[in-house]
Amino acid sequence: SELVTRPATHIWRLFKWGITLARHRALVGIEHDPNAPGPVRRMAKLARWVAFTGTSGERDYAGAFRDIGPAAIKLGQTLATRPDLVGEEPARNLLKLQDDLPPVSFEKIRASIEASFEQPLEALWSEFDPVPIGAASIAQVHRATTTDGRQVAVKVLRPGVRERFARDIDTYEWAAAHLESFGVEAARLRPRLVIANFKRWTNRELDLRREAASASELAEHMVGTEGYEIPGIDWDRTNGRVMTVDWIDGIKISNTEALKAAGHDTDEIASRLVLAFLKQAIAAGFFHADMHQGNLFVKADGTIAAIDFGIMGRIDRRARMWLAEILYGLTTGNYRRVAEIHFEAQYVPSYHNVDEFATALRAVGEPMRGKPVSELSVGQMLDGLFAITRDFDMQTQPHLLLLQKTMVMVEGIATQLNPKINMWDVSAPYVRSWIRDELGPEAAIADRIREDTQTLLRIPELVRRIEDRFPPKGGAPELPPLPDVELMWERRRRTEPGRGWMGYTIAAVAGGLAVWAAIMQGWIN
Questions:
Q1: Which of 253, 288, 358, 482 is the most exposed place for a label (fewest CB within 10 A)?
Q2: Catalytic choice (168, 290, 383, 393)
Q3: What is the pLDDT of residues 369-395, one digit of tens each?
C-alpha cells in the first residue's frame, strides 16, 4: 500500500522549491502583497535571505518553474491563467513557459515501448526514427511507419514521469490545504480546487489511452465541420504509455509567411479557427484546451489539423447556456443580463447588488466593443474581469478558467493570422444562432417534456425509498432463517399487499397525476 508522505518531507520539498523561486526573484511580489497571508510573506522573505538575493532585478517566474522540474512546468502553465491568484505580472511571464526538455535516449524509449507491448518494436513499426520531433515534460514524439505502411506519430511517456508527478502533486495538495486555512481571501481563491483540477488534468495526460479517447470523442463532435481535422487513432499500437496517431503533413499555423506563400487565406483560417473553438466549447461542451501554436497545423488543402489532446475542457449544458448568454450579452452591451446570469449561476453571492455588478461589467466590456483585437483584446477583458472578482467575492470557476485560457490562446493565434480580426464580430452570429436553437421556445418545451418524463419515471423508485425509510408501525423487516425464505415471501404477500407490483403501479399513477397537475397549474399561471 502507498505510504503517506510525512509533513517534514513536504516542508523540505517546499523549502528547496522556495529557494529556487527566490533565486529567480519570483517571491518578491508575495513579500509586498497585502492580500498574501502573513505566514506566506514571512516564508518568502526567509527563502530570499537563504538564497542571498535582493529585491531588485528581473523577476523570472518562468525560469524558476522550469528549473524546479516537469511537474512545476505544467503547474506554471496552469497558474498563467490565474492572474487573480498569482498576480498579473507573474501570469504574463508564465505564459512564456515552454514545455520543452532534452529528449530521453532512444535506448530507454525502445525499452519502455517493448515492455508496454511485450513484443519487439519491429513487430509494430517497420521504421522508427530514433530522433524525436519533439520532447516535453511528460512525453516525446517520434515519427514512424507501421508494418502495414502507414505514416504515424508515436508519443511515448518519459520513463519514471508518473512517479515523479505523483510525488510533487502530493506536496502541492498538502501546501494548498494549508494555504486555504490561512484566511478568507486565500479560501476564496480555492487553491485546493486549483490543485485538484491540475491533478486531474495531469493524470489524464499521464495515461495516453485517455488522451487517445479524448481525440476520438472530439473527432465525433467535429463531424461535419469543414476545414477542421483530428488525426485518427491507431488503437492497436496505443496503450497507457504509448499512443500512435496518423501523421499530419502541414505548415505550423504560427508560420504566417509560409501559409501566405502556399496560397492560403490567413484571414479565413483565423475566422475558421475561432468558429471551430466555439463549436467545441459551446455546442459540444468538450474542447481542445491546449490550442497553442505548436499544436495546430494547416494542411495543403487549407484544413486546420489539431494534435496533442492531453488537456481537454468539459462544460455541462447548463454552464454552456450561461456562457453563451454571457458572451452574447457582452457583444450586444446587455450588461444587466450578464450580471443577472452571474447571480443565477451563483458565481456572485446574493448579498451583492446586481446593478452594481452590471456597472462593473460595463467598465470592462464597453471599451472592447467595435474595436479590432489589435487595439483591445479578449485577454485584456479577462484581466478586467479578474480584477472585479475580488470586489464581488466571486469564487473561481475552474471549468471557466480553462476555457478563458483557451480563449486567450485562440485569440493570440487568430490575431497573428489576421491582425484586424474582431473576435466579437466573428463570434456573435454563431452564439446568436446557438442561443436561438438552444434557448428558444421549441427548445424550452422539449426540455420541459424531457424533465417531466424523467420525473415521472423516478416516482416508483421514490415511493420504494420512502417505504423503506418509514416502514409501517411494527412493520420493520426482520431477516428470517434461510430455510424459511419462501415462507417469508408468502407472509409478506398476505400481510402487505400494497408492496406488490399493483401497489407500485397505483402509487406511480397517483404521484404522476399529482405532478402533472402541478406542472399544468404552473403553466396556466
A1: 482
A2: 290
A3: 666 655 655 556 666 666 676 678 776
